[in-house]
Amino acid sequence: MRRRWFPIEERNNEEWRAALRGPEKEAALTDLRGLLVRGLRAALHGRAGGIEPSVEDFVQEALLKILDNLDSFRGESCFTVWAQKICVRTAFAEMRRSRWRDVSLEDVIDRQGEGAVAPSEPVMDPERATAKSIVLADFRRFMDEDLTEKQRVALLAAIGGMPLEAIADRMGTTATHSTSSSTRPASG
User: Fold this and answer.
1) How far is CA 123 from CA 120, 128, 134, 167, 176, in A?
2) What tens digit of pLDDT does each residue of 144-161 get?
3) pLDDT band at residue 1 under the 50/70/90 scheme
4) Inter-residue contact 74 to 17 (CB < 8 Å)
5) Which residue in 60, 80, 134, 187 is deepest, having the highest Cβ count within 10 Å?
6) CA atoms within 13 A on the CB side of 36
């Protein structure tokens, strides 16, 4: 199916900022939304199926971030490139979050098992194998003796690849030590 392309008004950086702040805001948002949808579809081309219905949601979330951070745009790049970067980062961050949405902490920890902190290597010299064994034993002792159950669960989930935001959500707390760069607005 061929999509219709709607021409947009060409604007320079300052014209974009002025339009998004002034009486032309709705027209500018419509133009920017069209650019972001086309750009995001291109950026996500070839990714796992089922993303297309989410493109509109990703763009809407990105538009809110762009408007909230309009004053942080420094003009070092083209405004539309800056906006597209925010949009792509927003989409990727949401896709990462959604990948973990239905995964429980218990599932991640169960998959970890004893091998979580001891990935296998095909061939290792005896000296390195001994050093690795000592470090892993110390790490397991630390986990068993020095961490609370909540800390141990969080650490095992993080080792299993679960994002801090998802871990915090499952544990009913906040991820205070991390601000994902993928959700911060891009500097322009």
Assistant:
1) 9, 10, 18, 34, 39
2) 888 888 888 888 888 877
3) very low
4) no
5) 80
6) 30
Residue showing tokens 């989930």: 157
Residue with tokens 């911060």: 184
Structure tokens at 83: 């906006």
Tokens of 43: 């950026």
Question: Selecting from 3.40.50.720, 3.40.1010.20, 1.10.1740.10, 3.40.47.10, what CATH number does the domain 13-100 have?
Answer: 1.10.1740.10
Q: What is the pTM of this model?
A: 0.57
Residues spanned by CATH 1.10.1740.10 within the chain? Answer: 13-100
